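Appendix C reproduces, verbatim, an entry submitted by the partner laboratory led by Prof. M.T., so that reviewers can inspect both the input and the predicted structure.
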Amino acid sequence: MLESFDAVLLARIQFAFTVSFHFLFPAFTIGLASYLAVLNSLWLWTKDHKYLDLFRYWVKIFALAFAMGVVSGIVMSYQFGTNWSVFSDRAGPVIGAPMAYEVLSAFFLEAGFLGIMLFGRERVGPGLHMVATAMVALGTFFSAFWILSVNSWMQTPAGYSIDPDTGQFLPENFWEIIFNPSFPYRLMHTVTAAYLTTAFIVGGVAAYHLLRRRRRREQPSEATKTMFSMAMWMAAIVAPVQIFLGDLHGLNTLEHQSVKVMAMEGHYESHPNGAPLYLFGIPNDETQTLDYAIGIPNLSSLILKHHWDAPLDGLDTIPDEDQPPVGIVFWSFRIMVALGFAMMGVGLWSLWARWRGRLFEAPWLHRAALAMSPSGLIAVLAGWVTTEVGRQPYTVYGLLRTSESAAPLDAAAVGTSLVAFIVIYFAVFGAGTFYILRLMGHPPVFGEPKLGEVVKGPIRTAGITPAPEEAVRRPNAVNPGE
């Protein structure tokens, strides 16, 4: 049955599935690592126990999400050799070094300090524990730095030459490769999105407990109220910044990948006297029209060119074989933008409730925050769909086509591994996500238990040597730290 499918399409679906599943976890842990660093520093500064309780509460969730992010990310590296060996051969001389630096710097930094952050407060002292927590947060940022640099180079290649004999991309200028034209904008936009993702998950968890305590006519804990307050400050401040950064990223994309912007805007036709901003429509690639279009005249020109009647080219200037699938790009972009403005709306709403002194007594705000808790994850996925599908039909934009990048595999081989990935991912990571949701279902309490106190049995860092009988009876005596 699988032999009737296209092997390249199946390879694309497989990579899209694994990378989408994987990025949900880093999108959360990048922001959560920084949040933990802030909580730990506030605890050391104020000695207010609610910050320590929140740190202990969220560090358990971070440990699980970080582990699932690492495991789900390993699979993608193998796909470069199995499904995309031609791409690896052609682009490897350029992208191999940054990907190696991600492991050597970011991952080693995270892994080296993660154990101290999780279990070492009493063992190494508060100062070194704070350093370890900050290093883990810095490591997550470095990881995003290198991976986004590689992706951005594939979008806007620079600093290379092409070997006429082998067709390989050869590095000529390291700094131009790393800091390629779209990288600074993509880095700021993606990292800020990760912070917003974490803010709305944290805010949604806090809102859930505020609503539950209200239903039970109980007073919420100071830790829960602080958690909600910090999340809403983040939403109110960062969401407008994210929209501004998204606009800058869009202008950069217009300069270097104008075809992607045409697909995002649904501009099948050129507009010499100002282009409309289409709010709704059904893209039709066969007829090259946007059916049932509803738009605002000239607003797209004003946004993209900052002039009311500035001309904008359409897809009628691009050969059909060089166009991306417009329908996917058009709608994923609108999902991302709509969620961005909804986030800003919740942030502004929280400012109004805070000004009135009702931030913790506003049930409709809490319901909205709870409903918006997965919005960051959805927006991040929609943004990556816009970026990656909008780049088609290329892996290295304008230079190497996707159809020329795949390994010479049969559709049955790719399809079989795809089915296996789907089954295993939903079983393993579904169980892990379920457990994270169970942890979130319990509110932070005064004297929140340490990570070592919730792990059943002794914690081993290596080998299979059984713990002493006394340690099995009293595991906290072996693991007194966090």
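The longest strand covers residues 277-284. Additional entries are available on request from the coordinating office.
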